Amino acid sequence: MNQSSVLRLPSTDASNCTDFLKVLHLVESEKQFFSEYNSYFKWLFIEEGEGAIQIEKSQINARSGDLILIPPEKKYNLSKLVTTKYWIAVYRDETKEENVDSQTHEFLVLLPDKFRIMSLIKSHNLQTQHFNLNSLERLRWLNRLQQMKSELTEQSFGFVEMLNTLLTQLFMDTLRLMTPNNNSNPVESHPLLTNVFRAIAQNYHQHQFSLSDVAKIVRLSPAYLTDLVRRKTGKP
User: Fold this and answer.
1) Does residue 162 sit in the same domain as residue 200?
2) CB–CB of 170/137 below 8 Å?
3) pLDDT tens track for 197-218
4) Torsion of CA 25, 37, 93, 73, to 10 degrees
5) Are 49 and 59 in contact (CB under 8 A)?
6) Whether residue 130 is found in the same domain as residue 229
7) Residues 143 and 212 grouped into a single domain
8) What is the pLDDT of residues 73-115, one digit of tens each?
9) Domain end: 157, 178, 199, which one?
């Protein structure tokens, strides 16, 4: 039997702790796991060994130190990982079921870090991605997953805040892997952009939030707003 750990991570709105689940150990009940978590964003980290993962019609060969990002609704099969030790962390933003449209996604990736995280977890353009981590990255990911497991299992005082911090760090590490040459640049002080960020922060949990909603609030066209943010952040 493989040794594996499955972590279900809380939504970023973790004020309701009743939605937390303890760590699950994946054994014979893989079919149940597949159906229960198919709508979640998943991180698959191979701690030891070699094997293969079937995602849709493609097979990915994986070995120690590999990290595979599996988008929601992708059919996958882990039955060929029986000789490996691996971790799965699963996450779903409970605040909104629909994905952002492609125009809004393009806009969000220009913004500061927390909005780029939103873009990652809500984008319908996200594809399966496969990384082999270097030794320092492997240690960091393993330590972080172990910390999450400890917090989920023990649920000590302050564990909600700790999990939110660890989850944010996990997303930031993911973004760095996905965009290694796209460093965040501080946005210059600009009253209009301040209003833009405030509007996004106040409204992104709303049903069918989009770039056009923000544009209406600040009374600018979506195209001009995207161009303004691109110029102020220095991102292409």
Assistant:
1) no
2) no
3) 666 656 655 555 667 777 777 7
4) 140
5) no
6) no
7) no
8) 778 888 788 788 888 887 766 544 445 555 555 555 455 455 4
9) 178
